[in-house]
Amino acid sequence: MRNRIEKFGLIGIGLIAGVALSLHFSASAEKDANQPLPIEEMRAFADVFGKIKSDYVEPVSDKKLMTEAINGMLNGLDPHSAYLEGDAFKELQISTQGEFGGLGIEVGMEDGLVKVISPIEDTPAYHAGIKSGDLILKLDDTLVKGLTLNDAVKKMRGKPGSKITLTVLRKSEPKPLTIVITRAVIKTQSVKSKLIEPGYGFVRVTQFQEHTGENLAKAIEALYKQSNGEMHGLVLDLRNDPGGLLNGAVGVAAAFLPKDTLVVYTEGRTEDAKMNLTTAPENYLRGDKDDYLKNLPASVKSVPMVVLVNGGSASASEIVAGALQDHKRALIMGTQTFGKGSVQTILPLSNNSAIKLTTARYYTPNGRSIQAKGIVPDIISEDPATAAQDNAFRLREADLSHHLSNDKQTEDQPETKPATSAKDAPKPKEGNAAKPEIVEFGAKNDFQLNQAMNLLKGMHILQGKKP
């Protein structure tokens, strides 16, 4: 099982320019080599290859043509499958450790342009005002059109302290924005916590990395200590968390669920793609590590909980929210999540390259597919000051070209649409292309957090009145 969890530690939503790609690495699964090649299609491919070699206006190397053909095969499948050459392995490995250079944005490809999935909290891109849904037109003087996603990410990375100018298209702006960002070494702190007031704790997971489960356990223990061992309520904040390692998601869910409780299961075409992952330690620990959850207070399994989510909550975040919702362990509050419910596996090739291939869909314990739908909160809560703008510009999986369909979608389960459309968004003032207001999650003026606290306090009062 441990080898299989390592294979499917790949559940992120795209390449990240300077922030953790939500992937881990795996050995290549054995493939059925007995499938016959499609002769007619291969002949057409060879004909096109030959015509380009003989008639194209400039000479083109065989390597370039084959690389572009492979890119085309994978890019045409879904937004998350990709071809990885050379140094991509090293970059991916660095990204899961939580410290590396870059801008701090998670990106995908849309109509030949780089599309921002989400800026990562406390990074240069976040502070510069990059927004979810922004389309990056130029990187310095280089047009993005024609670049692969890997090439674009490489250009966004660079020496810490160096600057890069992004030309950005944004729906609310009549003209492209020019945003200068200073690259930095990104040190992502995946778990943040604080005691809001006696008996009420706040834990924020910004993304799921190698040590997220351990850091969560330490945060919970610290909160209990600060509250003299008694907690009345806990808020788990997964807003704008783009996902990460699968074992991290299982570990976070396991902190709040009973032992051997199903967290997520996956379905694919191969046997290795079919897994049932429970809260058993072997499903979230790597190697011979001690179980970091074994010393948690027993009441953490039953303390009233609210989980905050929004359209930037994706992949691993949706696994955790879906598991806690299905088992009625917590109330989910906020807005509909991103809807990234597929699993990517890194499959090494013989030429020192690899493919990142979508190999499975994942499902919540009750059999719900999150793909292109997301998690619908038990309680819809939007900040009135930013709701219109957030709904207008929020990017979701269903907005991506070639996105994988939801195989569980039925007519009586229509996809939830945003309550507000782009035409309802506030119009910018003339000549104002300033960066948007940045909302600090966990601050005193955090509207959704205050709503969650009100709910927890009400639940505590009601519990006290029970005979």
Automatic annotation (TrEMBL):
Q: Name one Pfam family in it.
A: CtpB_N-like
Q: Where is the PDZ domain?
A: 89-157
Instruction: Provide a GO biological process annotation.
Output: signal transduction
Q: Which GO terms describe its cellular component?
A: outer membrane-bounded periplasmic space
List every stretch annotated Disordered: 403-439
- Provide this UniProt record's keywords sorted from A to Z: Hydrolase, Protease, Serine protease
**This protein is called what?**
Carboxy-terminal processing protease CtpB
The scientific name of the source species is Ferriphaselus amnicola
